[in-house]
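Q: May I have one protein plus its fold?
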Amino acid sequence: MSHRIGKFFSHKPRHLRRTICRSGLTRPEISPNNRAICKDTVCKKEKSKLLKGDIRFGSWVEVSDYPGSWAWKHWGCVSGAQILNLRQSLAAGGEDYNWDLLDGYDELNDHPDLQEKVRRAIIDGHIAPEDFNGVSFLPFFFAGGGLLWSLAC
């Protein structure tokens, strides 16, 4: 019976658990080593490692009764949903973005090209085609103001 209780109750106070789940902790950074394996389904299957010096994207993951850790992806494996969530959280109610809210963004100051890459992806709502690693559904707007979805490779 005691092992079942552990599955439903975390060792963290309720108010702290709620904050961590709601905040969606994510961050871009430059990979400091060659150890992490990309958590994208295709890359994970191939055991594709994140190379030192490449930009990577992390999501904070917590599993009940275990300490949290970062799950890393290649920058090109970041999903459109993740980019859109970032976009919404950085939008200050208008068209401007508050880049100070993006954890890790200020640490890219020595790499203005990578900062621009992150900025461009968030503003455009998707990873640049030359950086993209996978298959996704991309929105296409047409003159009539409608939205179509197309499978892009």
User: Anything to note?
Assistant: DSSP finds five helices and five strands in the chain.
